[in-house]
Design a protein that fits this description.
By secondary structure, the protein is an alpha+beta fold. It has 9 helices and 10 strands. The chain folds into 2 domains: about 60 residues, Arc Repressor Mutant, subunit A, CATH 1.10.10.10; about 160 residues, Chorismate lyase, CATH 3.40.1410.10. A 6-stranded antiparallel sheet has the order 4-5-6-9-8-7. A two-stranded antiparallel sheet has the order 1-2. The chain has a two-stranded parallel sheet with strand order 3-10. Strand 5 and strand 6 form a beta hairpin. Helix 1 crosses helix 3 and helix 2 crosses helix 3.
Length: about 270
């Protein structure tokens, strides 16, 4: 007769329930968790049991606690400004707000500029055509995290410069402005490109880079439902300025026959 495995304690069960809940991906590294009282009620356990389970998760680095602030997911004591899953198009302003990060800008420029090769190719226009171009250094809680350059296709409706300037200075993104202006942005294509920066370059100086370091550049083209490209952006992020993730699910339709086949094998 095989030995009966020991029954899990309530703390063990709570730890497992928390780990399973976090693994679903609804909360990302750096996101703040609900208060302990709410968590305890959700799991149907006492706060003492919950705290012991949280202690274990803290020891493993799955959560962090900040005195007077709360409990957060992940290993970093200070969350990066932007943690983005590339499956869903969201403004960086929304990502920052989720993490309790305050965005501001410096060196803001809003002016018609020559498209250049990359934006012209995206829009199917001539490189010498001009379009509204917005460049700025984005600050997260006062620290530079990205140099952003957005080009909006000529003819796309935008508010006047004073409104644009106020919105940018308040930490909004061009996507926020487009959506608020009724532009039906539907999807985007994002290219992630590694880039070496030195403190001698303009971008490196703007982002406070010392020496030579690797950073990420995201080139993104946003489209209307009919496929027309309406915005081209090039964003260079300081080290630690962004954390990217991509969620990939198994094709359930393709997986089902395999599961059935395995099931038949086990039963035979």
């Amino acid at each position: 007769m095989e030995p009966v495995p020991p029954r899990q304690s309530l703390v063990d069960e709570t730890e497992l329930a928390l780990r399973t809940w976090l693994a679903r991906g609804a909360h990302r590294p750096g996101d703040r968790l609900p208060p302990e009282l709410e968590l305890a009620g959700m799991l149907g356990v006492s706060r003492g049991t919950l705290r012991t389970a949280l202690d274990r998760l803290e020891e493993s680095g799955e959560i962090t606690r900040r005195q007077g602030s709360g409990t957060y997911v992940g290993h970093a004591m200070r969350p990066v400004a932007f943690h983005e899953g590339l499956e869903v198009l969201r403004p960086y302003s929304e990502l920052a707000a989720r993490r309790g990060v305050r965005l501001r800008v410096r060196d803001l420029e809003i002016a018609p500029r020559r498209l250049g090769a990359e934006a012209a190719e995206a829009f199917g226009l001539d490189a010498d055509d001009e379009a509204c171009t917005i460049t700025r250094v984005v600050l997260a809680d006062g620290e530079p995290v990205a140099l952003m350059r957005d080009v909006v296709r000529p003819g796309v409706p935008l508010p006047g410069e004073p409104h644009l300037r106020r919105a940018m200075e308040a930490g909004q993104m061009v996507l926020d402005i487009l959506l608020a202006s009724g532009v039906p942005v539907a999807w985007a294509v994002t290219r992630v490109k590694p880039k070496l920066l030195t403190g001698r370059e303009r971008i490196g100086r703007a982002l406070g880079v010392d020496g030579t370091t690797a950073v990420l550049e995201l080139e993104e083209v946003m489209h209307l439902p009919d496929g027309e490209a309406i915005q081209h952006s090039s964003d260079v992020f300081a080290p630690g300025g962004i954390d990217l993730q991509v969620r990939r699910d198994l094709d359930v339709a393709a997986l089902t026959p395999l599961v059935r086949a395995v099931g038949r094998g086990v039963g035979s």
